[in-house]
Amino acid sequence: MILRPKPSRSRHGVLGGAPSIAPMATVPTWLRGAALDTQTVAGQGIEDIAVTAGAAIGALDAVVRRRERWAGAWRQRLALSAAAVTARQAGRVEDEAALRDAVLLTRPGDNVGPAGLFLLAWRRLASRPADDLLTEKNVAAVLEDLGLTLNDEAVSDLTDDLRQLAANTGTVETLVGAFAAAERYGLRRVLGAWLADVLLAQRLGWTPAIPLLGAEATLVVGTGRARRPVTAALAAGAETEADWAKSLLAAQARAALRAIDLFAELERRADRLLAVAPKLRAKAADVVVEKLLSDDAIVASEQIAGMSDRGLRRLFDRLVELGAVCELSGRATFRIYGL
Questions:
Q1: What is the 3-state secondary structure (H, E, C) of the chain?
Q2: What fold does the segment set 280-338 form as a domain?
Q3: pLDDT on residue 239
Q4: How confident is the model at residue 219 (pLDDT cuts 50, 70, 90)?
Q5: Where in the chain is the domain with CATH 1.10.10?
């Protein structure tokens, strides 16, 4: 593990003070080299792939348990990536920038559009305890956000199935079972990815959950190219249950490594923001810093007590000048800022 000094902050979240030392997000070289693409998966046994996936999730678990102040921004950035893939798979054209606009530039309670609802579904996963997400209320809400429909009785049956799945199966069975449960109720695979992420978080004690499989754009049945439901593929003899498990484990490993890479990138950016934070003289600057660390992005027109619109714009200009934040929209107006 590599150790490095952190600029002017303690690991307890106090700005300024003596420098501290904290580990970077690292991945073993052998794990980085075990890229689980389709061809690699086809040539390996499920035991080998399970070892790689377990190591990747273990490395991610170490990252999660650091509980960094900027972990909220990390989770929400992962949610944005998952929502963009969800939109693309649904045949929509919105990319990450358009999804961000749909949610951040819409007043609370207004319609964010179908693609914006995809982002809200993944943001829900990234901001709530896993146990809470598996209640009938939240399962029904995420179904609505994803454009899926079940009656109240079916929602109740689905949540019961998920609780049993979480309590009585191993990790691999839970992963496969999440997708099978979604398909058993005639729902799209995106719900299987959402449920699998929630169940993994519940098993590992992550609070909140981490969006992983939603951003895995190459998630397919087994080693084949056809994007068919797993139950239909198995019934037709086109794939085996082991093929499907291998495909899902490989996707989970890729997603975990991608999340770790984003963690390392945002760590560098958060360190820069926290290093310059003690130098900021604007009123409520500490509130702005916390918002930047807690979310994917905030708009320049954010209503913050003790700070005028002009003061907030000047603060953002200063932070950009210092290299502490990025302007994410590329526009002259309706600007959006984040790590």
A1: CCEEEECCECCCCCECCCCEEEECCCCCHHHHHCCCCHHHHHCCCHHHHHHHHHHHHHHHHHHHCCCCCCHHHHHHHHHHHHHHHHHHHCCCCCCHHHHHHHHHCCCCCCCCHHHHHHHHHHHHHCCCCHHHHCCHHHHHHHHHHCCCCCCHHHHHHHHHHHHHHHHHCCHHHHHHHHHHHHHHCCCCHHHHHHHHHHHHHHHHCCCCCCCCHHHCCCCCCCCCCCCCCHHHHHHCCCCCHHHHHHHHHHHHHHHHHHHHHHHHHHHHHHHHHHHHHHHCCCCCHHHHHHHHHHCCCEECCCCCCCCCHHHHHHHHHHHHHCCCCEECCCCCCCCEEEC
A2: Arc Repressor Mutant, subunit A (1.10.10)
A3: 58
A4: low
A5: 280-338
